[in-house]
Design goal:
The chain is 55% helix and 0% strand. The protein has 217 residues and is mainly α. α4 runs antiparallel to α5, α4 runs parallel beside α7 and α5 crosses α9. The termini are far apart.
Length: 217
């Protein structure tokens, strides 16, 4: 009987997460079951439960991946490496809009944000985590804006861009619009920041379908 190593388990766990994320993107959160996730990658339901004890635990792991992707982009701000000059907002927006990584989480985050239930619901703690993340992002923007009250509007604007990207209504890689977005919220007299290098992510390149439109101005 083959021995399963820790590396094998990590690979299998990543396959399960990728399958779940892809199905949620195509069907919506509430139409995806553990059976669906297992069937999509040729596993049994029991094998999936060997890695995630419940559907909620699986969704929590997907949310952790989304949180990690956002945190990686905001890390320079959190660590004080990005400075606090007028170009810092553009740098933050360019990081958040870089590549396809964040857009792939939109379906999960939207479903959790729209979820309404009682205090004992298993999904409510996940929704609370999403709301906490939104508040962290809003506070980050507030610290960079001359008018902090616009931070909620900027979060909504950013969410709209990511949602349009996820639905293939916007080009892949929206970081090129960061300068215009920063000027819109800070004013026109803001010097541009240099382009960002490739950012780390909590993803496998094989798990996300690229947008149908690419590099459209």
């Amino acid at each position: 009987m083959a021995r399963h190593t820790r590396e094998d388990a990590a690979v299998t766990r990543a396959r399960i997460l990728a399958s779940a994320l892809q199905l949620i993107r195509h069907r919506g959160l509430h139409c995806v079951t553990v059976d669906d996730v297992a069937r999509a990658i040729g596993m049994t339901r029991g094998a999936v439960y060997g890695h995630f004890h419940s559907r909620t635990e699986l969704l929590g792991a997907l949310l952790s991946c989304a949180e990690a992707d956002f945190a990686a982009r905001l890390a320079p701000l959190a660590q004080g490496c990005a400075g606090s000059g007028p170009g810092t907002l553009e740098q933050a927006l360019a990081a958040l809009l870089h590549g396809d990584d964040l857009a792939r989480h939109v379906s999960l985050l939207a479903a959790l944000l729209q979820h309404k239930c009682g205090d004992d619901c298993e999904l409510c703690p996940l929704r609370a985590r999403v709301l906490a993340g939104v508040e962290t992002l809003r506070a980050t923007f507030a610290s960079l804006l001359p008018a902090p009250g616009l931070s909620s509007l900027l979060v909504a604007h950013l969410w709209g861009l990511l949602s349009a990207h996820a639905m293939h209504l916007a080009p892949s890689g929206l970081s090129g619009c960061a300068a215009a977005l920063a000027r819109l919220y800070q004013g026109p007299d803001v010097p541009p920041r240099p382009a960002l290098s490739t950012l780390p992510s909590c993803r496998s390149d094989a798990t996300f379908d690229p947008a149908l439109l690419r590099d459209t101005p």
